[in-house]
Amino acid sequence: MVAADLEGPYELAVRRADLGLRVHWCVLPFRVLLVLTSHRGIQMYESDGSTMVYWHALDSGDATPVQAVFARGIAASGHFICVGTWSGRVLVFDIPAKGPNIVLSEELAGHQTPITDIATESAQGQDCVADMVTADDSGLLCVWRSGPEFTLLTRIPGFGVPCPSVQLWQGIIAAGYGNGQVHLYEATTGNLHVQINAHARAISALDLAPEAGKLLSAAEDSFVHIWKLSRSPESSYIEAAPLL
């Protein structure tokens, strides 16, 4: 059992669910950490939850008195763990093979509004490969290449609707939006290939079965849909076929 530090008031203008506890297993090449985020900070535990190995308090220095301070969006990339924040910055933590000597190595500044989600996939040693995507409350997506220094490859503009959830699969970005649409983009170029009117209300979450290439979307309309993702062998164009 892990006890999260959740003391302190919540801002009246923000729903508890929007800022509340987020939990993610981060599978690194040499260890697994359990990462928790809240409006107070970021906690990292050993995989069995027995020991907290790192605590990072959130800095509210630039926040206005009515602005919520929180961390949201968690993903592992190589030996790094990336966590999004209320300010739009993404914190990159360098994780050692063992022990508590975790270091905040970088802050990525591609966004101007709060981060909603982060997705990664293994680059498998390839150069110039987009292996991380970050999303925010304006719907903006930033595509990154991870490494000792993270590199911003491209921005995919938003259109005034939040993007609560993103996934990354074989160079394809799947983004779920507050208007119920799912968009599929080419990660390296940011080109839109598919626009799906998937739900009647806002997308709550996307998930992937990477081996099968199946994308699941869940939304506030209470429906869940499953899509089969693929690339056309002739044109390499991204395709999505509904399964459920």
TrEMBL record:
Repeat positions for WD: 196-237
UniProt keyword Transport, yes or no: no
Tree of life domain: Eukaryota
Pfam family, one: WDR54
PROSITE patterns on file: WD_REPEATS_2, WD_REPEATS_REGION
InterPro entries per the UniProt record, alphabetical: WD40/YVTN_repeat-like_dom_sf, WD40_repeat_dom_sf, WD40_rpt, WDR54_beta_prop
Signal sequence extent: none
Keyword field: WD repeat
Limits of the WD repeat-containing protein 54 beta-propeller domain: 20-240
Protein's name according to its UniProt entry: WD repeat domain 54
Lineage of origin: Eukaryota, Metazoa, Chordata, Craniata, Vertebrata
